[in-house]
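seq:
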Amino acid sequence: MKSLKSIVIGTAGHIDHGKTALVRALTGVDTDRLPEEKRRGITIDLGFASLDAMGQDGSSPRISFVDVPGHALFIRNMLAGAGCVPAVMLVIAADEGVMPQTREHLAICELLGMTDGFTVISKADLVSEDRLLQVRSEVAEFLKGTFLSGAEKPIVAASAKSGLGIAEVRAELARVAARAKAAESSRPMRLPIDRVFVKKGFGTVVTGTLLSGEIRVGQSLVLEPGARAVRVRGLQTHGAAEDVAEAGSRTAVNLSGVDVADVSRGQVLVAAGELAATEVIDAEITLLEDAPALRNRARVHLHAFTSEVMASVSLYSAEPVKPGTKRLARLKLSEPVVLVPGDRFVLRQPLPAGTVGGGRVLDARPLRSAKRAETQKWLEQVAQAATARQLTLRLQRRGAEAIGIEELAREIGLRSDAVREMAEALVAAGELVILVNGSMISAAAFSIASDAVMSRLKSAGSGLKRSVLQNQSGLSVEVFDAVLARVLDQGKAQSNGEVVTIAGAAPAVSAKEAQKLHAVAAAYRKAGIAAPSVKEIGDQLRIGEAELRRLITLLIREKTLVRMGSDDVFVHAEALRELTTKLGAMRGKTMDVAAFKTMTGLTRKHAIPLLELLDRERITRKQGDVRVVL
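struct:
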């Protein structure tokens, strides 16, 4: 017995072109469920129905319909339904032909990246044969160049009232279902919510199209945005209770842990830790041919899946986007939305209301500190890159900053096991390095970090303590430890306890000497800018002058101590930095020795050599009897 395949198909078309009547003829379900819809005779909100089709190979695919409103006033509801369906049944009435919402709905379907479906000329029984032929010709011309043109995407004439062509429509639905691709197993579970209601005896129920992954009864999930923890009490797909709901199916989820008032259309059910909402995205946007130019800082409505938010458009080039062209832009959203790279969205202008374009998410976690020009160049690469290449690019843009597999998976919109599998292949190819804690860094950045560590060691001459070397290299502990292990294994460096030196350099200081170095540095740090003499430090630590001067020389090489001018007075570098920061607030002002003594609390003995050092370091400049803070 063949396994059942599920597919969700959306309707599209102008108001009163017979979308709902056609779905009713196919399924026996009237998708107009609201009292106002019954009273006015038009579809206002989304409607849902399903049927079991019969494929040519004997399979019985499960087809679910999302019936959308055709009136221009309810386009936001249409977008909430169209955002989650992979295929469309475009309905065009024989007595009216192609109308404004026909054009807008088809444009929306193309912007959302749909690739399959077919067209129905409805109400075929209301027109003559000549008129039907004329409409078919007009529709074929209208569809030319779109995803609904071609031999596999026929134009079917039908009538919901007389039954004409209904069997052919059913057969075409089965063919669309047969062509449907299985959801990618590498994608995390995601269900955008399009309807929320209370069912007596069960509580809160949400429905939506399960885009990827699966949901199980008893599973703990998260509602985003909001990070609200919920539990799955029950599931229904295709009108029947199930223990597991699979990707590609219309799914009703009975939730515990949340009241119906706290859930709304636009929220998304996700697995804990896999996806999160974002308020800033970088995207490639496309403007429709008949849209007005889109200017920098324009505000638009962004529709993605079942979400609708306002967005401010920041173009990566200052010139407005011309109709029919593509551009890179950063979109700042008025509310957080769950989005990942590859997701499609539609843009509509507020006044006059209308669809102007859409786009594709390239990055849902932009690095705020990155320079704009660098980000633009990076986005140009990402827009053309396959998934594995995108992973490498996301590592490279971080330089020497490592990222964990789970965090990278959330950023790229994949399951962590899929990222781990790709990472292992890239390690084998020499493109990335996995650290001991499981985080990753690009091989190029790791090489640059290794060169930086070796450069520091070469300049130090006699060696550096590990902690000092790590601090001077600017690397995180995890990256530094991996780099140091690599250069030690390669024989480029050597270590003696806590001190690291270039291979072949003079022997590093012993552990005992390292303790003395620490003690000398601590004594100078405690003294602050009231620099003691070498004799005073020697007496304090009970270290002979010759040995103490050798240790001071090592600390100067490590840039821990700074010579004040004579061979007898030194100051700790941190104390000097603190004084420099304090003087920074006085930039442009003047002070004499007395004012400096008052500010620092120093005696003349300590103040004069310190001021001379500040002059040499170009922190101050002497002008007569006063000094100007630079």
